[in-house]
Amino acid sequence: MKKNLSVASLASVIMFIVLRIQGSELKTPISKRAIVDLEFADTIKRVQELFAVWNLQTVKINVWIDFLFIIAYVSFLSIAARALAAKWEIGFFNQIGIIFSRLAFVAGLLDVCENIFMLQTAVGNYTQISLILTFYCATFKFILAGLIILYLLVSLPKLIKN
């Protein structure tokens, strides 16, 4: 499990760096969070503002690269949550770790849906409803990933102690 966790964490870091470098031109005065601004663009007006200053090819490439990042971070979160769950005796933190290891895949599925919506948006095929769906996929993905990361941080002292 340690080897898998190491590979998944390294892959996540590498993919994060690749995404940041490749998508760096998406960071502008009106889009300080780069592609994340598109994830949370819940109005047609906001999408049009972003696309007025962005290279759409860069957007598409960034989203396609994100599919690789999804595989990496879902693997990392799932393996890490399961590994830390095993460090706890049977109980709340053990069970929550097992649940979180499965919820990492839900976060990944939401991210895949979000990316599909964003690719459609990048080719001009979007509506107010599709933008809202993208927004909610992103919101719940970040909530789930944040909860899993919080669990990992809370569990870190237990890992160090063992």
Could you please describe the fold and organization of this structure?
This protein has 162 residues and is mainly alpha-helical. Helices cover 82% and strands 0% of the residues. The mean pLDDT is 94.
Number of domains: 1
Strand content: under 5%
* Class per helix and strand makeup: mainly alpha
Stretches with pLDDT under 50, minimum 5 residues: none
pLDDT average, as an integer? 94
Tally the beta strands. 0
Largest sheet: none
Gross morphology is elongated
Share of helix, binned: over 70%
Rounded to an integer in angstroms, the radius of gyration calculated over CA atoms is 17 Å
The run of helices and strands is: HHHHHH
Termini gap: 16 Å
Q: What count of helical segments does DSSP give?
A: 6
Protein topology:
Elements: H1 2-22, H2 35-39, H3 44-53, H4 56-87, H5 92-122, H6 128-161
Helix pairs in contact: 1-4, 4-5, 4-6, 5-6
What key phrases describe this protein's structure?
82% helix, elongated, mainly alpha, 6 helices, single chain, 0% strand, 162 residues
Structure in a nutshell:
By secondary structure, the chain is an all-alpha fold. Helix content is 82%, strand content 0%.
